[in-house]
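Two entries, shown back to back:
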Amino acid sequence: MKLYFLTPLFFLFSCLTVYSQGSSKDYFNKGYDSYLKGHHQEAIQLYTMAIELKTDYFDAYLARGIVKEEIGLYMPAIEDFDAVIKIKPEFVKGYNERAKCFQKLGQYHFAIQDFTKVIKLMPAYASAYLNRAECYASQNKLKEAEADFEQAIQLQPDLAEAYFGLGNIFLNKKKNAEALGKFNKAIELNPEYAEAYNKRGITQKTLQELKEAHKDFSSAIKYDKQLADAYFNRAQLKFDEGKVNRSACKDCEKAAELGHAEAKKALNKHCTDNSSKKEPPKEKEAAKAPDNSQVDKKSEPEKK
């Protein structure tokens, strides 16, 4: 009799276990489908349901963390990556994604720790050196940053961002010729690199190559119409040359609209009613044209 009762019970518990695992995986798959459709909040909910059914569901923690990271929920994402690392302590992506979240939050010390762990686990990973270099640069640790940018280039010679980073370091050190060379290389590798054009424009301006600087600021705006710094720099270039016109003020207005910290002050200084009335030549010529409206009025028959 014991065997008779034990066998159905064992079968029942086995079915429940399989059903639970199957449901967990089903929620995970639905979550992934929602993520692919761009429904991030729905994806998070579905991954959460998968984790509730299977509390050590590694893939679900990882996927949920990545979705949260993509929509800017960095601290909740870090909690998910903590769980990923707890389940698999040698999993590189867990440290790398957590480091990127710390970096976004400006917690560079913790980001550097995690990127260092990534490098230890995967010494040939160029992006980890690149990201750690950017963290060092944000802390003004330029020597460490320069070494990491160089190492990133050694591992991946076509990494435009690393040349860009070196260009910024040389620009900061007032080594303008060296900075120009690095920005040139970054643009060669990525011809649509808006930030590199902007920084090269700043370098060109410092070297008194004003026409080239204007071209670079215009290229930066062409490839990123939301780059406030490029609009401001192009406006400032015109202000410095004494060209206070509608074009310069329009650039400054756009920079202010995009949140540039100094643009409002520049607008108040250069683009008051009196200082911004300088019209382009064509508009001046139009202003000198005779008023034909009066002629037309005289030629019309009077109404009786």
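entry 2 starts here
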Amino acid sequence: MPEFFSNSTSSHFFQYLTGWIQADFIDLLPEDVISTNRQSINWDNDEMRKFRFFLSEMISKVNASWREQRKKKKDKDFEEATGIDTDFWMSTMPDDVKEHTSDILNMLSAEDALEKFTPIIKALHKIVPEYPQLHWRYLNDNLRERVRAYYQNRQYGQAADQAVKIYLEHIRTLTGRTEDANDLVGRAFTNNPCLHISDITTATGKNLQEGQQAMSRGLVSGFRNPMNHAPIDSVVPSIFSDVDCLNILSLTSYLMGKIDKAKLIKD
């Protein structure tokens, strides 16, 4: 059958295909297209070429339906065995990670191998979880949920912009100050700072304090201000690439972690 009706259909499919076709019209054709032993057909006949094309289309559709149902069953068996929603898991990965992870899963989740390799699949899921990039997995808790929608939509510019604004808001909440941007950063970290990142009586502490204010000023002047003073599509990705924005997100997370542990000095 495969050699007659379809070149694209998997031979594996034909191992499961059974059925019959009623084609009585063949006997009504002017030309006898059936061999004497009734085992073959003259496919060069114009009507038979049309019939062959019809059969090919029909079997292709049956094959597609079979593959879809087979995939649904496989995914259901996979989720029941591992507790992992494969479609959602794959949708959260960058393309390069998705490609390699999918190759591994296809080998490990075959029907005769799923039970055996379930522990390995679960271990793989821990190594490569949903949203597997390190900057997301270890993002500060005060940022993650508030930028999640942007991140999941791959709107990394908006996610980074939101993160910087949350960072400045967090400083105001901790200190009770009302300034914004670099005025707020200066009051928080320099000139009798109200947030001590570390023991500023030591050289290391002073360096950490100066680094916090310098990096915070960099976020404001080098990212937040350009983002606020122009339409976002004029700066992302032409000035700030997706990778740039993800790096900003990571830096903001680092700075958030520092002020979460900072000592508040009241006026």
